[in-house]
Amino acid sequence: MKKPRAAALIDRTMEAQCFTAEALERIAAVTEFRRATFDAMTAERLTTAIRGAQIAITGWGTGAITDVMLDAAPDLKLVAHAAGSIKHLVSDKLMARNVRVCSAVWANGRSVAEFAFGMMLVTTKAVWKCRAAMPEKLWPQDEARVWMREPFGATVGIVGAGVIGREMIRLCQMLELAALLIYDPYLTEEEAEDLGVVQVGLDELMRRSDVVSLHTPATEEARHIINAGNLALLKDGAVFINTARGMCVDEDALIAELESGRITACLDVTNPEPPAKDSPLYTLPNCILTPHIAGSMNQNCLRHGDLVADAIEAYVAGRPLPWEVDLTQLDRMA
What we know:
Elements: E1 5-8, H1 12-18, H2 21-30, E2 32-34, H3 43-50, E3 55-58, H4 67-72, E4 78-81, H5 92-96, E5 100-103, H6 105-124, H7 127-133, H8 141-147, E6 155-159, H9 163-172, E7 179-183, H10 189-195, E8 198-199, H11 202-208, E9 211-214, H12 228-231, E10 239-242, H13 251-260, E11 264-267, E12 287-289, H14 301-317
Parallel strand pairs: 1-2, 1-3, 3-4, 4-5, 6-7, 6-9, 7-8, 9-10, 10-11, 11-12
């Protein structure tokens, strides 16, 4: 049986960043594999690369799979995306041709959830406040007992039950929490029960939680889902974590709450990004600001290539595709 043709629609830099030699060998073992051959992606180069392919490997920077590219690959059957969001890749023509799409969203999602989980632990343990006291040669052990809200017996609220939210749930279930709450308007009661979480409305989640971690997609529906009205419901001393997108939070309202000193925020994303030079987010002592580093940045990128190899091997063998994207749900995706 002739092997299907697979074409890498990525540049050499991304291939090196996301694919181990083993992952590339796995793909080459089951396909006629055309590896990345260029250092910069252009429409012309991508069209040449995809010509005659049944499988296209895409990634960061690939851009839309245009009608011209689809015409050059009339037998295209699978797009294996070595990154997270696929929304920018998909066209009506690609969907009409029933091209299957899978992504490495789990790899990036796991990295984001690990980051949010870590920020939750060090913040509730008052690490930042203790560190701030050290230049003054203080030893605030007694004060830390007041500052801390340890995970034991705490309530954690997760907003959004996508890939990242579900991975955050899994990590939180290692702790002895009083309650693990979820808000997601698309989650069914049965799904919440299977996940082992308590489904509540957003206001109730904000009111009850010691920690709120935001994992909504960057859609218009989610714009300012966190706002002055529900931020005011947070307990004094609560921790708010945003590793989703800045647009999902009314930043002026969040800054007002931070300036009151009531809460602490861990923000890996802002709107705009980076914040304006005069933004209080840079200097507020209760704002832990990081430069959008929660997702795959370094070693974790190699998970992406492994997932692409898994998907291609499954496709060639006729097995179910791991992390196949349901394109009928495209409007709900980031």
